[in-house]
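Anyone? Bumping this.
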Amino acid sequence: MKEDSAAATLLRQLFGDNRAEWPPDHFSDLFVAPAYLTKLESMRPCLLVGGRGTGKTTSLQSLSYASVFERLVASGQTFEDQAYLGILVRMNKNRVRAFDGSNIDATRWSKYFAHYFNLLACSELASMAVWLEEKTERFLSPSAIGQVSGDLGLGSISDIKQLQHAIKTGISQLQLEVNNPGKQSSISLSMAEVPLRTFASVLRDEGLLGERVIFCCVDEYENLLDYQQAIINTYVKHAEPPLSYKVGVRKFGLRNRQTLDAQDLLKTPDDYLEIEIADEGFEYFARAVAELRLRRAKEKGINVPETLQAFLVELSFAEEAVLLGAEKVADDVLIKLKGTDLFTYFSAIPKSESYFLAFWKDSENKPLLELAENWKQNESAWRTRLGNYGYASLFWLSKGNKGVRIRKYYCGERVLLALAAGNIRYFLELIDSAIDIELNGQNQVDTTLTISAKSQTLAAREVGKRRLNQLEGLADHGVQLKRLVLAIGKVFFELAREPNGKSPEVTSFVLSGSPACVEAVSVLLEEGIAHLAFESDAKTKLTSKAEIRDNEYRLHRIFSAFFEISHRKKRRMNFDAKDLLGVLDDSPSKAISAMLDGKQQSTEGDLPAQMALFSAFYEGGDAH
Amino acid sequence: MSLFTQLLAHTRRFKTLEQDDIYADELVVTAAAATENRGQLPLWSTFVKRNPERIIAISELDKDHISVIGNMGAVGKISLRDEVAIGQILNSPRVLIDISGLPQHVWAPLLKSAYLKRQRTRVLYVEPKSYKAHPSPASATLFDLSVTFDGLAPLPGFARLVGPEDENRCLFVALLGFEGNRPERLLLQIDPPPKVIPIVGVPGFQIEYPAFTVACNRGLLHDYGAYSEIVFARASCPFEANEALRRIKKSYPEHYMYLAPVGTKPHALGTILFALANPDTTEIMFDHPVRKAGRTTGIGTIHIYDFGQFDGH
């Protein structure tokens, strides 16, 4: 079967939008409900917590009144079946930071910001009211609109369109005020919460709402200043039917649990339900998203498998060992055993296993013959050993193989899901890049398209490289975070190639050293976790800064293929926080050397090409 | 008047600056202290000694306030959002603002005040001889210019609360410099991502600088498909930068323009003037770098840009 070039292009388009869970034009067509959606749809206020690209915004957008209606219609239902109506208010950093400065007192900023939030939310509610009027053929009375406009400090207004216009004008006036605040406010300011409550009430009382509830979705909450978080916390804490709040926040983004009444803290589970996206069935969701896209591709006539498992080729341990050169190592072992009675024994063992003898010799520094004899006498123990250290030995296999393009494979559904580490955007980007590499510029798909292990590996490396380079553009301390990632990745890379039987698959670390240094590095790592440079163990539940100081950290798994290290969580090591701070200075090579206890490092020529690009950093300031 | 003639008429360039180059009725506004050589011209010391009434020196107290020593004595604390107080500092028929040693969040409100009063204004900028290379670069940004960033926040007096009418009709115009991560970081705050139009300083301060600029920003240019959109404007010329922005606006008359002045100061100057002339359809995005001491060396060409009474803006 030969598809036309448009088919291959379509396949790339289906997986090609990595910014959101689906391309905007196919919102309802490609929507897959995340596992936590039913929790999010409950009346309780929710805090939706996840790193960048975990789908927070997409989920909040999916609650919007228009999106829900569109999905209902697509499934043969009607407006009558709609249980809730969501509006979305995004906390734009460049705008919320306007409400800050020592030129006026904190109380006044607080009042200005609450007024601003009221205007933004009521603007969305007004649009929703217009939509509801159309759907229900009921109309808000002039007095109801007057109540809302009065609570917003906009004077007497009786028409919804006029209200929308007045809100815009109100925001412009507030803009003038924050740009040049006088000794006293020159505009009427609304009270925190009140206009939203009034708006929700009049919509219910005048029959536009029916039994439905309103979800005020607040996205990018982490952009808010601490005092602004206290204001929104107050809205959340005091939420009552028919109004509830759904807040999207990056990990560690909730920095302040206070409300406007400082004694009254925002608590979970009393005041809201906390949904940590990473804990909510990511694998099931990601598979469903990808397989729906495969089905859409198939419907359009592209010859692809229906399951992700079939689409992404997986390698067995033995297959990977052979591809990485195990046979050559095994042949060398056999040459050394020639003339002994062990030769026949080891000749019968698959080369994808017998190479392991050379690995163990390198690791234990014992004579090959002694180890070979031991293997023969203790088959079961060696089988266990192969099970425990076989994966780590795959990294060793490539050592010294200069110029080899692939020194470790990253492929198969399970591995790609692990690399994405709960991030749907990363997952789609991995598949998209792999498709791109597999097709390699072709526009035609001749046979059933599957993605080879090689294409997946190159894609994983490419995505890791791209994410690493983007890191400095993500966070305020992105430059420092990138330096930390490069240094820690280099340490793990070196350890993976020098297993010595003692430190195979070291991928995590804890901090030690002076409290001041640990604190400084922890703050950076927290920012790194929020921006997907690092991960921390599950005991870091969410937000409290105080609780995470003794955490175990690891590089984000999306960097595994770039640094050619294990994506599995196995063993941890200790880093002196002082050395990590040293990486940020002019001479990172000294700090990296200290982190490796002065161990011999790979030369620039031995580094994989993608890492060698950073030799100015690795050798900068001071040669090894 | 053609742009070329306009530039000749409005820009003067010097190797060293003499007293005669300053108008007799001109008030000089400069930084009280500078971490770079070029931030303190020798001529200003002469002014302080001989004509103290004609020079005022500005110190940054915090990100919202400055203090001033000058013709009206020492003024303790002035809010950068207080238009009246800033207007009083620039109390002269003509002003010359030396922006070389002043951070953007300080000189932009001064310029805004002069602009709103249609005051006769000249701006002075001293090019550095060179920038400090990073001893161990981890990225395409080869220079060691900033300690850290305070993060995205409006410049005083330039806050926008309204935003675009249509989020799908927006441009992100980045005036590029050597720190490629800066425009990317700003751009990530905008959702959905707008079309990206980069402005590169060509000709640059040095012949190799335009190539450096493109190299340092290759991530942005590649990821947002912006290579084909690059617009050139002389790195040392606010008029060319301003003109480039006008042309972009002409090509996209319905679009809301996010402006990221993260390149040269003359480009930032042209951008601020453009934002002042188009307040409803532009939004400045700035990340407030904390500059490294000694990030530049030497004194290069000295430029004086004459904006008259901002008639052309």
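Late reply, but here is one note on the structure posted above: The mean pLDDT of chain B is 90.
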